[in-house]
Amino acid sequence: MSTGLETWVTNLNEVGPLYPFTGTEVLLAIVGIATWVIWHIIQIKSEIKLCDEEEKLFADKANLEKAMQRSNAETLIEMLKTHGKEV
Amino acid sequence: MADQLEALTVIFTEVYYWITVVFMFLIHVGFCMYEVGASRRKNMMHTLMKNTMLIPLVTVTFFYFGWWIYFGWANGPFITGGVGEAPWATPWSPLMGASLSDADGWSHINGVFWAAFLLFSWTAASIVSGAVIERIRSGSFWLLAVVIGSFTWIIDAAWGWSPDGWMVQLLGYHDAYASGVIHAIAGGFALGILVHLGPRIGKFRKDGTPRNIVPHNPWMVTIGLFLIYTGFWGFYVACNIPIFDVGEAAGMSESFFSTTTIYLTPTTTSAITFNFLMSLSGGLMMGYIISKGDAFWTYSSGLAGVIAASSGNDLYHPIQAMIIAAIGVVFMYKMHFWVERKFKIDDAVGAVAVHGYAGFFGVVICGFVLWGYPASMNPDYAHISPWGQFIGAIIMFFVLGFLPAWIVAGILKKMNLLRIPVHIELAGLDVAEYYDRHLDRADVYEATLEDAKNRGLIN
Fold first, then answer.
1. What's the pTM?
2. Which residues make Cβ contacts (< 8 Å) with residue B220, sequence separation at least 6?
3. Are the Cβ atoms of A54 and B424 closer than 8 angstroms?
């Protein structure tokens, strides 16, 4: 079975495409475009889910306050203090 | 290719564009460093991933339809003609892959030429990325990145950055190094999003005056800008055709080989090297004075200076380029702070100013300085003029930049997909997405502390 090119010993002016399965270009384009669209759908759905979960977590005022302290900690020492550790 | 001289020209051109692509990659590295450095610690990873993932998304879409638009839409379509034939640029063309199929060398040039344009696409999207950091949802940004990277910018290139685009034919539009076709459009696009997105929490005081949200790492910001300068060299030479016979178009009886602009009008790599460095210098000098030595604005002004002179940097005298750059920086700097205060626009990295306002200025000023110059080798096309350039700048900044972004961002906002929820913005985008990492960091520190105690190294 051959997927395309079988020899280099030929008139190279007449070789044309070098990739395997020539003739499937339109199908490949359809698959590629579909993959791109599906990627966006999956990513946006997953981002919405993540945002919803985090919103629920941070709806608790104590959780949000702690997270804000942690995210604004510049150093590890500062962050550990937000965990209630005296260092 | 059987002819050795033809082969040498074609394969030199192939390698030439390939090298520009590698250089231009540094623009993206620079933008990533710049944005991450400018963001606060709590948002670093989100900022990085937002900019990184535009690379594959713009690449694949530019392969699927962006490249074809460049050749197919030069007439509008339906302004100076219909949809153009571009069989080599469709995603199913054998020339969009490994091929030996043509006699004129296009199988060697197509991929590297596509990539050079693609790197411009990344740049356009990456410019927008910086303006919207720390509050946009990644999914929305990536859709918007595809809109500018694979659709609107390449329409403007077809119209005003190709030898026979309708803007070149009818307006005499001239924009050799993309003041308008990359920078003004990207700045306008960013502004269109920012209008809907709103400022970051804490950016403005109750009386409306802005706070300075300090970059978490100014060194990353400055090194990022240095890398953008470096990549800009690649960008400049990628705007040229390295070897082209302009003799026939000039009406000469013999060949005249020259480097040309994208419009196939002659220039030299030396000319653009003079002008790149002199406009960079003009921008830096004025930026230092006007910002009173502020590092962020001085670096940005260097970039804005080059952008302000880019439309005509194929033809300007180097000192003209320097003066234009310096004036453009004053315009850019004043506009940024006026718009920020007047309209409460939070442009996190000054992208609208550095690219949008400086790019707009660059297109317009070119109309005055190069007034009457031919925009093309075709004597029937319009010449460069202030009005042609002004209309061109409006098309770049507002029609293809601001407007599409304002429409798409408005739709995304209505769908509640544009902005990160307020709780997450307050907590920090990384805390939200990488919450466990913070716990891990504390856990590891406690373990090392315990180990040190067990060894008797500390009490």
1. 0.94
2. B33, B34, B36, B37
3. yes
